[in-house]
Each structure stands twice: as structure tokens, then as C-alpha cells.
Amino acid sequence: MPEPGTLFFPDDYTPDTFKLIEIPPSVEDQIEECQQSGFTINFSIRGSREEEAVFCTPNETYQLKEVLTSNSLFVVTPQPDKPVALMHGAITDGTVPYQIVDKLNSVVELIQIPPKLSKLSQLLCTTLYQGPSIDSEVTAKQTLYRWEDLQALVQASDEEIRCGLKEINAICIEGYWRMIDPRYLSVVLELILSLIHAEELNLEALEPTRFTKELVDAEIPEFIVTHCLINFSNPNSDDTLSLDKKKVSRFIGECLLEERKDQKWPEAIFMDTWQKKVETFPVDLNLLQGLYYTEVAVNRERYITYFPSSSLPLDPAARFRQLFLLKPKWEAHEILPFISDLALGKKRDALLLKYTRTVTNGGVTSYTSRQRLM
């Protein structure tokens, strides 16, 4: 049995000093694993004054949701040496005074959410690496970001930020993270593919040094060649690389769409042009999910238009409004890539229920706006 005690508020009591966080099982498991292995684990709260703060583990991001409780919880510390004269009320022999540090009327719940990675592109797009000849001009006029800057500004865990940087083909140059201009990266990739075809190299066992020697003569820095190879390949156990055909196809397909971003592509012509660009590599519109939307003309011909999900607002209401202003009806497989970064699982289903109406015709599920858009 705990010792009986008396609670008291100190004269300098300051409320709202503490927050009680209820951790989910996944976070609890991480803590226990680290305790058993003797390692430490770091958690962080991330977000600017204009953003809702998020809780980050090393590899996951959580929304912080404050829930009011019906009973108050006291945070106390024992004060065995506290003079009796300072206590309020009588104290019986043997009791221990406990100083109230804080009174809690709520609990903070952690709800896992997708990382908010769109800010990476927003931060890095002003300093695109376009080659060594003009790089000093680019960096002299704009803000550059180190790793710790991205940690402070991007609402995502460290692992998710690293994955996001890889997704946008970012590279660390002299301690600063930079995106590579897609046009410049396209030139480098085409030179690599040309060398592969010219020398009939094995796509499953590429040696990076073979390319750096050749492309340096084309005034492509060695670190850019190496970065391009690594980003578009998967590592083998013998230090060679296996070219990722799908990632190469996706990048080239996106470049084609972006070249005519203000125009509609007839789908058949786009697919034919894309296939000629990548030759024997696979082409499938599923590789470009979240980068385009489709329309069907009166003559039933299908058109596709460049429309990256990263350009959409993060606010769900604004996101759905913009989607339905663009296109009044979306099939399920069309709209999901454009809302996947808003929520996970049932939370995403709840957003669809809140902002859309479901229409089923011939076994095909489509969504229309629940709100009037006029």
C-alpha cells in the first residue's frame, strides 16, 4: 500500500506545465525494443507556428489530438523535508507531503498520419542543380538547406524525410540538400541508357565506375553520375547495381507529361511516345499514379493531362474542392492517388464519406462532390 500523504499547491504553482501523452502499441513496442537492446530512441514534436504540431518517432508521424477527461489527474512530487508550517490543513503523523506540480484535465492521443512531404519540394525547388557551369549563380541568390533544417521544417520522421528526398531525386552537395533540375537529370539518364545500349551492358549488374569514367568526358560531375545510377537502381550483394526499369519509365513518363503540362495528350499518342522513349522498358499508366488525370471526349477518345498531387493543398476541404472543380466525377482508382497523403486507412475512408457522394454504375464506383461548387 502507498504511504498516506497530503497534497498541496506551492505558492509559485504554474498550471499547464505538463501534457500526458497516450502512446499507441506501435510506439510502445519501439520503446521496449530499445530498452531491451540498450539503445536510446528519440522522439520529436515538429511544426512551425502556423502549422498543427505533429509527433515523430524515428520512422512514423502522428497527429496530436487533445481529448478532455472527466476526472482531473495530478502530477505530484514527494516533499518529505517540507516544513509542516507551510502545509495547508492539519497533517497526521506519518503522512508525506506531496507538492502538486500540475493538474491535467486532458490526454493527448497519437493518431498515425501520412508524412507531410510536399514541403520538401517547396523548399528545394528554388535551388535546382543544373550543372557545374551555373551552380554558383543559383546558390548565391537562394536559401540552401542542411539536414537539420529539413528536420525542423518538414513534418515527417527522419526515415520518411529520407524516403521523400529519394523520391524527388534530391542529393546532398557540400552539406546542403538540392533537387536536380529534371531536364538536367533527364540528359544524364539518357547518356547512361545510351552507354548501356551501345556496349550491351547487363542491366542486372551495372558497375558505377564504368559510367563515371565515360560521362566525365561529357562534363557531367562524377557525383551526379553516381547519384543518378543509385537513384534509378537497386543494389546487389557484389556492389553492382540492377537498373530499376519501372522507376526509369516513371521518370521519363513524368518528363513527357511535364513538357506539355498545359496541354492534353491523346492517351494512345502519349503511350506510343513514351514506349519509344524507353524502348523495351515497361510502360503502364499505373506507374504514373498521382501525376495525371484523364478525360473522355465526346468521340470517346481518352486524353491525359499533367496534374501532380504535390500541387494540391494539404487542407482536405480545399483539396476535394479543387479536384471536383477540375473534374466532376472521379472513379475510385483515379481519386485515391490524389488523397493518399491526407490520411491512412479508415481515416481516409472517413474523408471520402465527408466530402463525396458515392455513385455505382455497372459495378464501377465513382465519387462526386458532396458540396455545391458554385
UniProtKB/TrEMBL annotation:
InterPro entries: Dcc1. It comes from the Eukaryota. GO terms for cellular component: chromatin; chromosome, centromeric region; Ctf18 RFC-like complex. GO terms for biological process: DNA replication; maintenance of mitotic sister chromatid cohesion. Keywords: DNA replication. Belongs to the DCC1 family. This is Sister chromatid cohesion protein DCC1. It comes from Basidiobolus meristosporus CBS 931.73. The lineage of its organism: Eukaryota, Fungi, Fungi incertae sedis, Zoopagomycota, Entomophthoromycotina.
